[in-house]
Design goal:
two-stranded antiparallel sheet, 200 residues, TIM Barrel, alpha/beta
Amino acid sequence: MAMDAGASALGLVSAMPSGPGVISETTIADIADFVPPSVATFLLTSLQDADQIILQHRRCGTNTIQICDRLLAGSYDDLRKAMPGIKIVQVIHVTGEESIAEAVDAAKGVHALLLDSGNQKLKVKELGGTGRTHNWEISRKIREIVDIPVFLAGGLNPQNAAEAVLQVGPFALDVCSGVRSNGKLDKKKLHDFFECLEHC
């Protein structure tokens, strides 16, 4: 359904502390195997250990790793060496001006950044799928400073996607909650989302 609507990448959500869209690693592997090479497959991981992420990727077989939390053990260099040809995307949860320095630092070791609206400081972490926007002025500053692609996520929907593109100028948009109804992808919302972007 997402590919038919025009998606150039699919976010495949592995175990998370909260948020929608979680599927099993077996299902992720099946989808990654099914999707044509022209569509990127992102493994969304909440793991914070490079060795564990490498093992998870071997089970899932996507062509991109999206690290939704901070990497605490190992390094981006470890990931790149163990998974040549696999793109690494670091999520930055934009909570304030301090997110700029975090983004600049992460940009030195990954292929792209994804700016989202989660909160890692909560008792139950929010690592995506919150349905909330964040301060797009900060996101624009990050996009202007770093020299790698920047994806924008967080509270995007058919009503605000075009404005998000105009304000931030991201490489691409990442949408989850804004194209769902009752916890599942909504065909009409998906098509409305892509239709609104045709005029950007």
